[in-house]
Each structure stands twice: as structure tokens, then as C-alpha cells.
């Protein structure tokens, strides 16, 4: 397939149409934002790290039977994906309390939750991606109740698969965010990216943060953390 016009440029990616109507060409950028765009910067090599890490994780999910948009890598910072209409709902799964949940509920960061917790956020920059409940998704028409059930089932399955996958690499999957999309024929696919930008990943032994919290909280060693995750998922072997 050939790359065609720029369809969309977001905070972390550029998306191009291709000669195949059903496929999109995604270019991962080094730009980093946090707190709904209030904090901006660049993370050297992030585009490459996230492209390769996300490809490795989606490949693992494909092998486990999770329907998703990933087709194949095109280069170290580009990949080919199925074209979908993104459902404007972010699905967050948490295993340990951290980030906004720890803050909102007054919990100690790192508290092990008795069971995985699932949250929905409305993908809307103007509103700052507010936490929403299933009734909101329904009355706003963001997704049907059947699609919500499917997203919940897939999100919990992905949590099981990736928790085990990362545990085998001495990493704790603290929490992560997923996005879903609909194909032209109405199939719901896991979409977007899964990377240190969208997951909290802690070293099992040292509990060092190996994710975007290093950028959000100015902890330093951001590039090294992404490099470490790439190394542990063996992502360099895929391109
Ligand atoms: O900030 P919060 O604790 O709600 O984030 C939960 C998880 O979702 C984190 O792993 C974070 O990286 C991810 N997330 C994301 N994109 C957002 C908000 C959160 O990838 N817009």
C-alpha cells in the first residue's frame, strides 16, 4: 500500500489515508503532552519506542484472539492499521490505585485493589475527558449498551493477558487506557496504542516507574524508561 494525504494530526500521531480504503498509515511522533495538553514537551525517540512497543503488544493480543486494528509495522516509527471510527470513550482498567483514582478517592498510590476496576472517560478535549458512567454513554449515544458490554469484556481480557505478559518481564501493570473503534461493517476492534504513554508500568523489584509518569512528574530518565520497556517486550525484533 502507498501513503496518501494527511487525514488527522493528533498530540502523539499523524494519520494518513492509503491506497487501500480500509487501511490507515500511522506515524508516531516524539511530541509529548500531559494534563490535557497543559504540559508540553518532547521525549527523544518516543515515536519509535511507542510504535515498536505497541506493535509488540498488539501482536501478542492478536495471538491471544483479541480483535484489534493492528496490521503490521511499516518502519521504526510507522505502522499500518485497519480504518475504524473511534468510539469517543476511553476505557481505563486499574489493578493498583494510582493517578486520578488515588487522588479522587484519597487512596495511597500502589494500594493493590481487591479486583480490577474499570472506568469510562468521555473523550472530549474541551471538557478535559471527564469520568462518566454507563448511563451517560447511553444517553449521549456514545456507544450502545451491547458495545459497552463488549468493551468491558475485552478490556478485562486484555488486562488478564497483559498483566501476565508484563509479569513475565518483571513489570507490574498498574493501570492502562484502551480505545475502541468501529469498522465500516460495524465490527468493534481494539484500536489506538498501548504503550508507556497509555499504561502505568512499574518494575516488579524496585517499583521504579517505567512510563509517562516520569514526564508528567518531572522525574527524569524518561527516554531510559521507554527504552527499558522496549527492551523487555523484545520490540526491536519486530521491525
Ligand atoms: O490519569 P489516570 O490515573 O486516570 O490514568 C489512568 C491510566 O490511563 C494511566 O495508565 C494513563 O497513562 C492512561 N491515560 C491515557 N490517556 C488519557 C488518560 C489516562 O492513556 N487521556
Could you give a quick summary of the protein structure above?
The protein is an alpha+beta fold and 239 residues long. It contains six helices and 14 strands. The protein is globular and about 50 Å long.
Task: Give the key terms.
239 residues, binds cytidine-5'-monophosphate, alpha+beta
Order of helices and strands: EEEEEHEEEEHEEHHEEEHH
Radius of gyration using CA atoms only: 17 Å
Q: Which ligands appear in the coordinates? A: cytidine-5'-monophosphate
Name the structural class.
alpha+beta
* Main sheet properties: 7 strands, antiparallel
Into which percentage range does the β-strand content fall?
Answer: 25-35%
Q: How confident is the prediction overall: mean pLDDT?
A: 97
Please describe what this structure looks like.
Strand 12 (171-182) and strand 13 form a beta hairpin. With 239 residues, the chain is of the alpha+beta class. Helix 1 (46-63) runs parallel beside helix 6 (222-233). The chain contains six helices and 14 strands. Strands 8, 9, 10, 11, 12, 13 and 14 form a seven-stranded antiparallel beta sheet that branches. Strands 1-2-3-7-6 form a five-stranded antiparallel beta sheet, with helices on one face. The protein has a two-stranded antiparallel sheet with strand order 4-5. 34% of the residues are buried. The protein has helices at 46-63, 99-105, 134-139, 145-167, 213-216, 222-233, and strands at residues 3-9, 13-18, 23-28, 31-34, 39-42, 70-75, 78-82, 85-86, 89-96, 112-122, 131-132, 171-182, 188-191, 199-203. Residues 90, 92, 98-101, 129, 175-177, 198-200, 212 line the site of cytidine-5'-monophosphate.
